[in-house]
Specification:
Helix content is 13%, strand content 42%. With 619 residues, the protein is mainly beta. The two termini are 83 Å apart. 32% of the residues are buried.
Length: 619
């Protein structure tokens, strides 16, 4: 028994584990007949490491007991490379022979199982077989001797045989039944293994205590079961780790067992090793239809070879009254959050669970719908239907039973704000569907970028437009929604025509990028204004002919006044021919701002002030 287990036991209990392994190494066709006898004393307070002893096919090991009690053990016997042929193992307690096939305390011999291996000799694969002795229940041979006294001897005698062989050239041929195996001479080796494990149990052992990890559970829940061997006072005493227990459930319709291997089986569960029972490797699974009221279930563990040694515990299965609950955000509350200056969306978490559900997987579907309402006007001042920006974000999650589902809203690279929202959650558990909703629980506002971030990478001429349109702001001061200007302008650049996209309404970098691109388009129009007049591609009410001598705008003042004017709407310059009816007439540019404003002149003046070192205070 490992040291950590011994530390839990009372000092007056004695646990002994002795293990001896026998190996036979035989090169065919020579048959060695060497008999070795080894004596191991079963003494108090000692745990012997396995000892390897080379043995012949006929060998004996003797154990001597120095304490009285119950002796339990197991035997693992294997013979590698060739079938076992005829072999036998007998146990003698003092002068009485304990036959494997005849005693109630030893598992019945079942069969030899073969496993095929492959190893590589230079150029040629070699195959060999391994055979293991198994009991009727599929484990190593086990025995249980209830009365062993000080001075008793226990002998294990193994007799084995070697199959018929013959040598043909370089090949050793072994014949057994209809099978014939071939090996290179010198490569074939035969090995027999016999390992015996023993434990001495004190006679004060009275039974078992069974403890469930959970006192009350619901259908679908699992509770770990721990079993301990105790005396009549309930004090834990040593127990052989190979002792077999049988588990039962009453009533068996309300539960199943989960074995140490992870397999789920119905009651009863036989052949549970005490080592697994003590370590809590067996679990109870509440199974079946949830009861209408509290339902007690009895879990009992019984020693297989002595049914008077037993223990039990009771678990109460509770009714299943599942109910979905949104934990966060709470209904009736509002969580304020902000888009950062970078910009980046805030991390918003939603939490929900299926209360009182205990039957396995719960599949959550989440959906968050966010809206913002923004005003719009016609150029004549007539208010239009509000612009509504609406986005939906979805996600899924799977949890166990009543565990909490935590969902972080996935913004998918979008920058959005608003104060009209709805959070939907659906939970699918078995064949049941549960739904819940909360509204207006989040308020997402925008944060204006710092001035230097807005100016970064822009020329002075471009900065003039940003300043005049928004004073460096994407959002109004309060409540932090997109800065609006009539008729339909939004954000830093007051994008109007064409209208800003939903992303440009909320994302200042994308708004700025669109505005700068639009400004470049207007500058190109200013550069090409003379050419359009020469080709009669401009206003035909102003220019009834294609005036071939119309010159281009060439100075910075001409070009930027025209550009600034056009950005807001209209033109700044008009070309006047000296002879309006003559297509070949000369002429001159005159300032005639159109569009109901004079932004061309105003913005150019601001540009000059900045260049001259006299910018406005909020520049």
């Amino acid at each position: 028994m490992p040291d950590n287990r011994r530390s839990l036991l009372p000092k007056f209990w004695i646990t002994v584990l002795a293990a001896v392994s026998f190996l036979l190494l035989l090169y065919l066709p020579v048959r060695a007949q060497v008999s070795i006898k080894d004596t191991v004393v079963i003494s108090a307070g000692r745990s012997l490491e396995p000892v390897e002893v080379l043995l012949s096919p006929s060998s004996e090991v003797v154990y001597v007991a120095s304490d009285s009690g119950i002796l339990a053990g197991q035997i693992e016997l294997a013979r590698k490379y060739v079938p076992i042929g005829s072999a036998s193992l007998s146990i003698m307690l003092n002068d009485t022979t304990v036959l494997l096939e005849a005693t109630d305390y030893v598992d019945r011999y079942l069969s030899w199982q073969s496993v095929q291996f492959r190893c590589n000799d230079p150029g040629t694969p070699i195959y060999y077989m391994e055979y293991h002795a198994l009991s009727a229940s599929g484990h190593a041979l086990r025995f249980f001797l209830p009365e062993v006294h000080v001075g008793d001897t226990l002998r294990f005698l193994y007799r084995g045989s070697i199959p018929a062989t013959e040598v043909v050239g370089n090949t050793v041929r072994m014949k057994l039944g209809d099978s014939c195996y071939f090996y290179y001479e010198g490569e074939l080796q035969e090995k027999e293994v016999c390992e015996v494990q023993l434990s001495m149990l004190n006679s004060a052992f009275a039974g078992y205590i069974v403890q469930s990890e959970q006192d009350t559970i619901a259908v679908g829940d699992v509770s770990r079961l721990t079993v301990a061997s105790v005396d009549s006072a309930g004090v834990e005493v040593p127990m052989d780790s190979t002792t077999l227990l049988s588990y039962t459930i009453t009533p068996d319709s309300l539960g199943k067992f989960i074995k140490a291997t992870g397999d789920t089986v119905s009651s009863p569960l036989p052949d549970v090793l005490y080592a697994d029972a003590r370590a809590g490797r067996i679990q109870f699974l509440a199974h079946g239809t949830p009861p209408d009221s509290l339902q007690p279930v009895v879990i009992e563990a019984v020693q297989t070879n002595d049914t008077t040694k037993r223990g039990a515990d009771t678990i109460v299965i509770i009714p299943d009254s599942a109910e979905i609950e949104i934990i966060s955000p709470l209904a009736g509350t509002t969580i304020d959050s902000s888009i950062t200056m970078e910009p980046r969306m805030p991390q918003l978490k939603a939490k929900a669970r299926l209360k009182n559900y205990h039957s396995g997987d719960v599949f959550f579907d989440w959906r968050f719908v966010l809206k913002s309402v923004n005003p719009q006007y016609d150029p004549d001042g007539t208010r239009l239907e509000d612009r509504v920006i609406r986005d939906s974000f979805e996600g899924k999650d799977t949890v166990q039973s009543a565990d909490t589902s935590i969902w972080i809203i996935p913004w998918d690279q979008l920058i959005r704000g608003g104060d009209i929202d709805t959070l939907y959650v659906t939970a699918l558990a078995g064949t049941q569907t549960f739904r819940d909703t909360v509204i207006n629980s989040y308020r997402i506002r925008g944060s204006n970028p710092v001035r230097d971030s807005v100016k970064a990478g822009l020329s002075i001429q471009q900065q003039v437009v940003v300043y005049r349109e928004s004073r460096w702001r994407q959002f109004n001061g309060s409540p932090g929604f997109p800065l609006y200007g009539r008729p339909r302008g939004y954000g830093l650049m007051q994008l109007d025509n064409p209208a800003a996209t939903d992303q440009e309404v909320w994302h200042w970098r994308e708004n700025r990028a669109r505005g700068i691109a639009l400004l470049a388009t207007k500058y190109a129009e200013a550069v090409g204004l003379g050419a359009r007049i020469r080709n009669r591609q401009s206003r035909q009410d102003w220019y009834p002919y294609a005036y071939s001598n119309a010159n281009d705008l060439i100075t910075d003042e001409q070009l930027w006044k025209e550009t600034y004017q056009r950005y807001v709407g209209g033109s700044y310059w008009r070309w006047h021919p000296d002879r309006p009816r003559d297509p070949r007439s000369t002429g001159a540019w005159r300032a005639e701002p159109q569009g109901g404003h004079n932004r061309g002149n105003e913005d150019w003046q601001l540009y000059q002030d900045v260049l001259g070192g006299h910018p406005p205070a909020d520049w």
